[in-house]
Amino acid sequence: MKILGFSGSSRKNDVSGVYKLVETVFENTGIAYDLISLRGKKIGGCIACLGCVKDNMCKINDDMTALREKIVEADALVIGSPNYYSNVNAITHALLERWFQFRHRGNDDLWGKLVVAVGVGGGEGLSPANVIEQICNYNLIETVAKVTGQGAASCYSCGYGETCSVSIPVMQYGKEVKITEDMIPDVCKQAEVMKLAANAGKNLNERLNSGHDPKIVAQNVQKKLMEQMAA
Ligand SMILES: Cc1cc2nc3c(=O)[nH]c(=O)nc-3n(C[C@H](O)[C@H](O)[C@H](O)COP(=O)(O)O)c2cc1C
Predict the structure, then answer these.
(1) Same domain? 147 vs 157
(2) 148: CA distance to ligand 1 center in Å?
(3) Which three-class secondary structure state does DSSP give residue 49?
(4) Which of 16, 23, 84 to probe ligand 1 with, by most ligand atoms within 8 A of CB?
(5) What sign does the CA torsion over 103, 71, 45, 122 have?
(6) How many domains does the chain have?
(7) Residue 36 is part of a domain; what is its CATH number?
(8) Of 85, 77, 87, 89, which Cα lies nearest the Cα of 36?
(9) pTM for this model (two decimals)
């Protein structure tokens, strides 16, 4: 059983809400895992060159090349992204766009895998989790859980959070705001969010160990996707 995860956060692991949540999901699976941070990786978006159509292999040579085989080999994935403008951030989108290489001529490399989608935002984390879910749907991967939490907007640490008129602390608490340690959002202090992450990990373990059949999973996701597209 192989489980692989990505944290799309641009921040160092010890201050990233995304990394902490993805890690918490994994720790609760009880399965050995590989968690890769996309921070600092060079992954460009799909350029629609169609070079992958014949053999389902992307011809762009960057940090995605080394990840391809790991993704194919994984039975399940945990993918986390910060909310950047109500979407996943650019590196996470690039990673997911490049899955276009798997989508040709009935290639089933990704079909029937399971995923937990993780999203963290200074306001909300659901937008990136929904994007991850939808891109996984297109690849016939079932989202077994979405885990979302509130992280610390950069305005809490940039040095101008109390005086900048458009800083998140000013917008949330008003012009007289004094930033204190306890008002800085931290997913680890959000009991409900940590519980969601723990339950998602347990759920993933149960699904993988109770006769996970990728063919049936893929059929079900395709049925839902076709209903969605027909609507
Ligand atoms: C360029 C940029 C855009 C952002 N846009 C949003 C947004 O639209 N909504 C939101 O809730 N948070 C937004 N944020 C805040 C981040 O989602 C927040 O800091 C989150 O904690 C980042 O996750 P991380 O701690 O794992 O890096 C934005 C941050 C950056 C740097």
Answers:
(1) no
(2) 13
(3) coil
(4) 84
(5) positive
(6) 2
(7) 3.40.50.360
(8) 77
(9) 0.97
